[in-house]
């Protein structure tokens, strides 16, 4: 690498803070996936130093098709902070983003530290709530183009999120019909089964990854299980509403 990991982290942090797109870093600084996660952590540490608080994690590449497209065999993940949270029905300021997209997801609430690998049979020991959600992703790279290492270093494009009403975890989570509407036009429809067959499988996978890296997902953390549909570009003036069968609605307006 021509730059240190700390220097790359500072570049990504500045791009996010100043809402300015940059060239793909991996084109000039070749770094491994492990190094990309180090860079991600260093970049988020800069936010924490400014007063932000980690609220959870977002999961990415939670579809077999996306994994195959990117040439990977496991999900990727990024960190969420309180500065990314938007109230259900709230507004986001488009001037604080570069080229945002939105996607409907299923969110989970951790009730007990996840400090070991989970299975489908015991996942209820650590997860007790689920909700519909919207995630706003916003790559800091020009034209939304990046390599695997690039996107991981860039905190997996994490930008903002909206959580709906929390519901008790139940077996229906594996097949929840959903639709996302922007400006009264039906834009996308999907089903939670698009997330690795069930969002619960994504939670099992992140528990394995965290255990392998000796990391703990603390009680109270939010987990965004990955996109159930393709992401859609959003623009100033957009009114976004997602409906989740059995979980209610989640909405967001763009100013």
Properties at a glance:
255 residues; nine-stranded mixed sheet; five-stranded mixed sheet; alpha+beta; single chain
Q: How would you characterize this protein structure?
A:
This protein has 255 residues and is α+β, with helices and mostly antiparallel strands. Helices cover 23% and strands 32% of the residues. The protein contains 5 helices and 14 strands. It has helices spanning 5-18, 33-49, 64-70, 148-153, 199-212, and strands spanning 54-60, 76-81, 85-86, 90-92, 101-110, 127-137, 158-163, 167-168, 177-182, 185-191, 222-227, 232-233, 239-244, 248-254. The strands form 2 sheets. Strands 1, 2, 3, 5, 6, 7, 8, 11 and 12 form a 9-stranded mixed beta sheet that branches. A 5-stranded mixed beta sheet has the order 4-14-13-9-10, with no helix packed on it. A hairpin with a 3-residue loop joins strand 13 and strand 14. Helix 1 (5-18) crosses helix 2. The protein is globular. The chain starts with a helix and ends with a strand.
